[in-house]
Amino acid sequence: MIYTKQEFEKIRKASLFSNLPNIITEQKPLSELKNQEIPDHDKSFVGLKSLSHREFNSTEFWRDIPAFKNVTKDEFLDVKFQNKNTVRNLAKLEEFTKGIVDKSFIEDVRQGIKHAPMNLSISPYLLSLIDWANPYEDPLRIQFIPVQSITKENHPKLMLDSLGEQGDSPVDGLVHRYADKVLFLALDVCPVYCRFCTRSYAVGGDTELVNKMKFNNAPEKWKKAFAYIASRPEIEDVVVSGGDAYMLAPNRLKLIGETLLSIPHIRRIRIATKGPAVMPMKILSDANWSNALIDIVKLGREKGKEVALHTHFNSANEITEITRQAMLHLFKNGVIVRNQSVLIKGVNNTLESMVHLIKKLSYMNVQPYYVYQHDMVEGTEDMRTSVKQTIELEKNVRGITAGFNTPLFVMDAPGGGGKRDVHSCEYYDEVTGISIYRSPSVNEQNIYLYFDPIESLPTLGQKLWEDKTIHDELIKNAIKNSGLSSYTPVLS
Ligand SMILES: *Cc1c(COP(=O)(O)O)cnc(C)c1O
Ligand code: SF4
Question: Model pTM?
Answer without folding.
Answer: 0.93
